[in-house]
């Protein structure tokens, strides 16, 4: 599909199988293989219960495969003496910001994990300030997290992970509980961390508009990876995407409707701007 790079993958999952109950037949992840390259922004989509969170938890050794392998920068997650290194390289951000905030002042919250690791105070100070700048919450550093909006709280949680200087962020529906504005600020922050700071991003999302911003989209179904490609490659297969009980971006849907109505719209339209441009060309 795309050219393979020579550098080691950020994350490499090979034929991963996992079940929560070894006495039952059902596998939550059922033979998933996936490579996340360094610097990539990958969105993971799939209907409820298809195994997205379970697979993501394999990326920093929260879960270990029953069979198959996961490596992080070449290190197998089963290597017990490397679990700390792996968790430092791959940071996880979850759905509910309230469950991830532990301190009563923003900057203390961001510093929390570093303090627990015994990082020297001066180093903590500089890393925490940097993380708060990177996530756009520096101006709120002295506030109580409970006074912040959902989007701001989620950025505090991201800053806490960024302060660990991870190479990769895994976000499990980290915008799902936010209002549209909060979602946008968090997405902008994630994109900036990816583009400006080169942090690899794996974002599980139910929002097609968010997935459309990724370099690559991976679709899961029944514990397996069933589609993979650029957002254009994936979302232009509207029938197949819908058959997996997923939406397509509104612009792709509109393009399909127009084609059905006899308007000769070009292929591969997935965002509003492209859609508007194509209509404009047709009307000229
Ligand atoms: N802690 C658990 N114990 C037992 N079964 C679980 C547990 N967590 C998830 N499962 C089951 O494993 C399967 C995959 O769940 P998972 O949470 O990975 O899916 P998901 O794609 O993240 O879903 P969602 O979109 O709802 O977050 C489902 O059948 C789910 O019910
Ligand atoms: Mg999930």
CATH fold annotation:
Rossmann fold
Top CATH class:
Alpha Beta
Beta strand % = 15-25%
Number of domains as seen in the coordinates: 1
CATH architecture classification name = 3-Layer(aba) Sandwich
What's the total count of β strands? 10
Q: Which small-molecule species are bound to the chains here? A: adenosine-5'-triphosphate, magnesium ion
Q: Which structural category fits the helices and strands? A: alpha/beta
On the 0-100 scale, what is the average pLDDT?
94
Distance between the termini: 36 Å
Order of strands, main sheet, comes to 6-7-8-3-9-10
Helix content: 25-40%
- Overall 3D form: globular
Q: What can you tell me about this protein's structure?
A:
The protein has 284 residues and is of the alpha/beta class. The protein has a single domain (9-248), classed as P-loop containing nucleotide triphosphate hydrolases (Rossmann fold), CATH 3.40.50. The protein has twelve helices and ten strands. It has helices at residues 52-57, 83-89, 97-100, 106-116, 121-134, 150-162, 180-197, 208-211, 231-235, 238-243, 250-260, 272-283, and strands at 11-18, 29-36, 41-46, 67-72, 75-76, 90-93, 168-172, 200-204, 216-221, 224-229. The strands form two sheets. It has a six-stranded mixed sheet. β9 and β10 form a beta hairpin. α4 (106-116) packs parallel to α6, α5 crosses α6 and α6 (150-162) runs parallel beside α7. It is globular, with a radius of gyration of 20 Å. The model has no long low-confidence stretch (mean pLDDT 94). Magnesium ion is lined by residues 52-53, 172. The site of magnesium ion has 3 residues, from α1.
């Amino acid at each position: 599909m795309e050219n393979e790079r020579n550098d080691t993958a950020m994350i490499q999952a090979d034929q991963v199988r996992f079940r929560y109950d070894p006495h039952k037949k059902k596998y939550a992840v059922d033979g998933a293989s996936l490579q996340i390259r360094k610097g990539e922004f990958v969105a993971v989509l799939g209907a409820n219960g298809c195994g997205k969170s379970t697979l993501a938890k394999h990326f920093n050794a929260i879960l270990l495969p029953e069979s198959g392998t996961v490596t992080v920068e070449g290190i197998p997650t089963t290597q017990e003496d490397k679990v700390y290194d792996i968790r430092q390289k791959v940071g996880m951000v979850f759905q509910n910001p309230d469950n991830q905030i532990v301190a009563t002042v923003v900057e203390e919250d961001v510093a929390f994990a570093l303090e627990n690791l015994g990082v020297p105070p001066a180093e903590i100070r500089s890393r925490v300030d940097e993380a708060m700048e990177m996530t756009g919450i520096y101006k709120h550093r002295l506030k109580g997290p409970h006074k912040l909006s959902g989007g701001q709280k989620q950025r505090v949680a991201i800053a806490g992970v960024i302060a660990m200087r991870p190479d990769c962020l895994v976000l499990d529906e980290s915008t799902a509980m936010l209002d549209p504005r909060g979602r946008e600020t968090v997405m902008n922050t994630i994109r900036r961390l990816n583009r400006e700071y080169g942090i690899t991003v794996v974002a599980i999302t139910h929002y097609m508009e968010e997935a459309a911003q990724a370099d690559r989209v991976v679709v899961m179904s029944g514990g397996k990876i069933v589609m993979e490609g650029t957002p254009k490659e994936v979302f232009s297969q509207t029938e197949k995407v819908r058959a997996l009980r997923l939406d397509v971006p509104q612009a792709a849907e509109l393009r399909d409707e127009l084609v059905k109505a006899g308007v000769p719209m070009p292929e591969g339209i997935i965002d509003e701007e492209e859609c508007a441009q194509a209509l404009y060309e047709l009307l000229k």
